Amino acid sequence: MKSVILKIVLAAGFLLSFQTENLIPYKDSRKLTWDDFQGPPVASSPFQAKTESNTHLDISTQGMEATIVMVTSFDKKTSWVKTKRADLLQHEQTHFDIAELWSRKFKQKLKGKTYSLKTFQKELNTMHTNIQKEGKTMQKEYDAETEHSVNAKAQEKWTKKINADLKSLSEFIPEKVTCKLVK
What we know:
Elements: E1 4-11, E2 23-25, E3 49-50, E4 53-62, E5 65-75, E6 80-81, H1 86-110, E7 114-116, H2 120-146, H3 152-168, E8 176-182
Parallel strand pairs: 7-8
Antiparallel strand pairs: 1-4, 2-5, 3-6, 4-5, 5-8
Helix pairs in contact: 1-2, 1-3
């Protein structure tokens, strides 16, 4: 069987291009700084900052096994800030953390599973759509409950929750997952 490579870009803002020089891959040990927000602020936006993140997938098949490499990244050129405050930076970091959380959840759904070769692409697309919807819903709930960083108690609650969720899914930190394909 020929090796097939499919590329799907998933994004919180769902970017269509993958420009590595503008991207900061997610690492638990590397937190965002205001210097990372290099995009021009949107003057008409009511918000003080925006985090743009994406998850890049490379899917390859070899024989009857699929390998999925998934990397969540922060886009420096499309992320911006108007007002630099520590509480706002934490808010934006948590947006990035939420994007990574849903990447790990996607890897959790894929890892070690067996899929029909005929329906793998369809199943992958369905999972992608569902993960995308759930991730967007969580991002909206996060902004609503924290009032875009204004509600300090809610912000602290969310930051602790997301950190705990990330820790509980730490086995899915590696970028690569494999699954089996059957005819």
